[in-house]
């Protein structure tokens, strides 16, 4: 009987410990925000922010990889507790999930071959533009580029877009300006490509910034995460993380 009670006690303790884990969904194909090191370890700005939040709320981050367009369905199916993977806070998404305060805000942009004459979406008529499926950039491309005669091709991962630009199957992309700078334009395969048009901040497509997504009704968790974001912004942790990846403050205006 004592052995049984001890076993039950250990099981209960293990359950309590695991309850302290915060399962965090990431799409590790979005350098420099979320990607993998050579040995397969998740890293990037989003990952470091998640770790800082977990440290502040005294929980352990457990990262769960998920393809982008399945992020919200996976959250609703309770595969993880939160999404910390560069998810924009938009009105459409707020209908089905809740968000923390923002933790960064950067613009998006169109990328095509250097020398492309650009005077608006119509000047890209006939071109094939790749976008991340389910992203705000896809929403922009479908709303602004497709009606102008651009072929918009959705992909499961942003790095697949870059592979097809390199191979000549695509003419360009619409992507977060910082991500496409670090994940494509700064690399050899991005040579000869560049930004066209103005920086894109249109709230209709891009929302109000990047936040932590969670299921509706998780008010206690939301309060803890908002307090954690405020805390790491208030001391030197946010600045230290930012300087690892950027030469500017990504929090935005």
Describe the structure.
- The protein has a five-stranded mixed beta sheet. It has a five-stranded mixed beta sheet with strand order 9-8-10-7-11, sandwiched between helices.
- It has helices spanning 2-19, 45-56, 71-76, 91-94, 136-145, 158-167, 177-185, 203-206, 219-234, 237-245, and strands at 21-26, 35-36, 42-43, 60-65, 82-88, 98-104, 108-113, 128-132, 151-155, 172-176, 193-200, 210-214.
- It has ten helices and twelve strands.
- 39% of the residues lie in helices and 25% in strands.
- Helix 5 links the parallel strand 8 and strand 9 (151-155).
- It folds into two domains: 15-105 and 208-245, Periplasmic binding protein-like II (D-Maltodextrin-Binding Protein, domain 2); 108-206, D-Maltodextrin-Binding Protein, domain 2 (3-Layer(aba) Sandwich), CATH 3.40.190.
- The longest helix has 18 residues, at 2-19.
- The radius of gyration is 20 Å and the shape is globular.
- It is of the alpha/beta class.
Task: Describe, in short, the structure shown.
With 253 residues, the chain is of the alpha/beta class. It has two domains: 129 residues, Periplasmic binding protein-like II (D-Maltodextrin-Binding Protein, domain 2, 3-Layer(aba) Sandwich), CATH 3.40.190; 99 residues, D-Maltodextrin-Binding Protein, domain 2. The chain has ten helices and twelve strands.
Quantity of strands, as a count: 12
Strand content: 25-35%
Radius of gyration: 20 Å
Largest sheet: 5 strands, mixed
The shape, in one word, is globular
CATH level-1 class of the largest domain: Alpha Beta
Write down the overall mean pLDDT.
Answer: 92
CATH superfamily of the largest domain: Periplasmic binding protein-like II
Q: Strands across the major sheet, in which order?
A: 4-1-5-12-6
- State the helicity in percent bands: 25-40%
What is the CATH-assigned architecture of the largest domain? 3-Layer(aba) Sandwich
Question: Which ranges are low-confidence, i.e. pLDDT below 50, for 5 or more consecutive residues?
Answer: 1-17
In DSSP terms (H or I, runs of 4 or more residues), the helix count works out at 10
Order of helices and strands: HEEEHEHEHEEEHEHEHEHEHH
Q: What's the domain count? A: 2
- Measured between the Cα atoms of the first and last residue, the distance is 63 Å
């Amino acid at each position: 009987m004592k052995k049984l009670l001890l076993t039950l006690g250990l099981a209960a303790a293990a359950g309590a410990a695991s309850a302290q884990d915060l399962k965090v969904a990431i799409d590790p194909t979005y350098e420099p925000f979320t990607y993998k090191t050579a040995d397969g370890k998740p890293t990037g700005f989003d990952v470091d922010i998640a770790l800082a939040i977990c440290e502040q709320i005294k929980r352990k981050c457990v990262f769960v990889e998920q393809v982008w367009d399945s992020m919200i369905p996976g959250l609703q199916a309770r595969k993880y507790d939160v999404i910390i993977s560069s998810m924009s806070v938009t009105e459409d998404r707020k209908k089905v999930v809740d968000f923390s305060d923002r933790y960064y805000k950067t613009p998006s942009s169109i990328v095509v071959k250097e020398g492309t004459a650009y005077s608006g979406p119509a000047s890209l008529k006939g071109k094939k533009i790749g976008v991340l499926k389910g992203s705000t950039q896809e929403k922009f491309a479908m709303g602004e580029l497709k009606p102008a005669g651009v072929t918009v091709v959705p992909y499961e991962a942003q790095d697949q877009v870059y592979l097809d630009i390199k191979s000549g199957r695509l003419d360009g992309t619409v992507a977060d300006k910082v991500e496409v700078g670090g994940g494509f334009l700064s690399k050899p395969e991005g040579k000869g490509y560049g930004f066209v048009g103005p920086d894109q901040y249109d709230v209709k497509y891009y929302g109000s910034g990047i936040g932590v997504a969670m299921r509706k009704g998780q008010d206690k968790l939301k309060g803890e995460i908002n307090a954690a974001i405020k805390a790491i912004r208030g001391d030197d942790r946010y600045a230290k993380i930012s300087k690892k990846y950027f030469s500017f403050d990504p929090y935005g205006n």
